[in-house]
Amino acid sequence: MPTETFEFQVEARQLLQLMIHSVYSNKDVFLRELVSNASDALDKLRLEKLRDDTLDADVSDLHIELDIDKDARTLTVRDNGIGMSYDEVGQLIGTIANSGTASFLKELREAKDAAGAEGLIGQFGVGFYSGFMVADEVTLVTRRAGESKGTRWTSRGEATYTLETVDDAPQGTSVTLHLKPADPENQLHDYTSPWKIREIVKRYSDFITWPIRMVPETGEGDFAPEAETLNSMKALWARSREEVSDDEYHELYKHISHDWRDPLETIRLQAEGTFEYQALLFVPAHAPHDLFTRDFKRGVQLYVKRVFIMDDCEALLPPYLRFVKGVVDAADLSLNVSREILQQDRHIRMMQRRLTKKVLSTVKEIMTKDADRYATFWREFGTVLKEGLLTDSENRDAILAVASFATTHSEDEPTTLKQYVERMKDGQEDIYYITGESRQSIENSPHMEAFRDKGIEVLLLTDPVDEVWVDAVGEYEGKKLRSVAKGEIDLDAKGEEKADGEREKQTEEYAGLLGWMREQLDEDIKEVRLSTRLTVSPACVVSDAHDLTPALENMYRAMGQ
Ligand code: ADP
Ligand code: MG
C-alpha cells in the first residue's frame, strides 16, 4: 500500500496548534504521557494474552525502552505491548474522541491571555499530542499483537499526517520525537541528556509497574553496556505512608485519571484479615466535564497482587462516588475475574461498603479541618453525592452530614442542616426549603414572602436532584423537611396563635370571592383558600403536600412519563 495522507479532525488540529506554540512551561510532562500510553499498552497485551493464549504475541519480557540519539536529536519511547492496527492508528491518533477535550478547547479559545491558557492546558491531559511541545516531527511505528504487518504514522503537527504499511515492524509501538533545535540558553530542557531523562522518569513515572529501561549509547568496541532500569516499579499502595511523598501519590493519580492537576485528597486504606486488600483512592479537585453522561468512565482500577486486572471497575464504589479515582489491590481474587463475578462477590460487596464509608468519613474530615477545601469539594461533587441520598440508605446520614445548601441566611455561605437547625426560631418545628431553577428566581417567589417577613430561614435548592431527595429523605434529626410551596403552612404556630375561629370567620366573610374564583379556575385547581403565607402578593399557587412540585412535573413530562 502506498503512503496515504490524511487530514486531522478539526479539534485535533486545534490541539496540535496549541502544543506546537505551547505556552505551557512544564514541557517535561510529554514523557510522562508517552510512558503512560506505553504502560497502558503493556497492561492491555498482558490481559489479552491471558484471555486468549493462542494470541501470537511474546509476553516474556514486557517493558518500555527509551532511546536517545544525540546526533540525530531524537528520543524514542518504545514498548512491546498491544500495538495498533492501521485503522486504529487513524482513529486513535488522528481524532479526539474524548468529549471533555472539546469543551476544553472551547474554554481555551475564550481564555483571554497566555497565563489563562497555560492554566487551562495544565488542567487537561492532552496525551500523545504533548510530544509536539518538544518535537517538530513525530514518527510512530506500531504493530498490533497477532498481526503480521505494521503501520508507520508521521506528522509535523500541521494539518495532515501520513500512514503507510510497513513489513518489518516489531510487536508494539515506538514513538520517535524529532526534537526541536537545542536552545543554548536553556540547557535544562535538553531531552537528549540521559541525566535529564532519568530525572523526569524518576519524578513522574517511578511507580509504573513495567520496567522503563534506558538504552545506553552504543559505545566503541563490542562491549554493549547493560540497559539501565530507571524506575523502582514499587506499587505505591503497598508502601507505608511515611515512605511515599505527596508528589509521588499525585503522579500516580495523574497516570490513572489522565488529569494534569493534583488531586484534592489522597485516601489510603489497608484491610487485613481473611480478605486482604489495599486501596489508594483520590478525590479530584475538579469534576470532569462528562460526569453526568452515560459513558462516563469510572476511575478505580483493580489489581490482584500488584497485577493490573481492569480499568474503571464499577463494583468497587457506588455510582454516586463515581468521581473517585484510584487503585484497589486485592490479594485473593483470581487473575481471570470478570466484571459479572465481581458484581456478585460477597467480599467485593464488603469491600465496597468499607471503601464507601472511608470516602465519606474523609469528606467529613475535610469539612471539619479545612473549610476552603470542603467548599471546593462540595461545589464540584455535591450534586453527584446527593444521588446517594436516594440510593444508599445505609449512608444517608453520613451524606447529609457533609451536605451543604444555599440558604436565605447568607448570600454566599452555604449552610449544613446542622447549622440550620441550630438557628431555628423558637417554636419552629420544621426545616423549610424551596426548590427551583435558580437562587434568584426562587428568592423572589411569592411563597417566600411570609418567611422573609418573619425572618424564618429557607433552604434554596436548585439542583434537579434536590426535588427528589427531599421527598425520599423526609426529615433530619426528627425535623420534617417541608417545601414552602406545598400544603398549608401555618407560620403563626405556637405563642401567636390567632384567636380561635378567626380563620373560619374570615373564610366565611370571603366565601363569595373564594367560590367565584374556584368556579373560574375550575379546570386548573383543586381548591382556593385564604393564606397566611403572603404579605405583598395577592395570591399564589400552592401544591398539595404530596403533589409533585412544578419542576418535578416538568422533569417527568420531559422524560415522557
Ligand atoms: P489517552 O491515553 O488519554 O487515551 P492519548 O492521546 O495519550 O490519550 O492516546 C490516545 C490513544 O492512542 C490511546 O487511548 C491508545 O488507544 C492509543 N495509543 C497511544 N499510545 C499507544 C501505545 N504506545 N500503544 C498502543 N496504543 C497507544
Ligand atoms: Mg495517554
TrEMBL record:
Cellular-component GO terms for this entry: cytoplasm
UniProt-annotated stretches for the region A: 1-339
Pfam families (UniProt xref): HATPase_c_3, HSP90
Keywords carried by this UniProt record: ATP-binding, Chaperone, Cytoplasm, Nucleotide-binding, Stress response
Cited Gene3D superfamilies: 3.30.230.80, 3.40.50.11260, Heat shock protein 90, C-terminal domain, Histidine kinase-like ATPase, C-terminal domain
Subunit structure as annotated in this protein's UniProt entry: Homodimer.
HAMAP family hit by this protein: HSP90 (MF_00505)
Protein name (Swiss-Prot/TrEMBL): Chaperone protein HtpG
Gene this protein is translated from: htpG
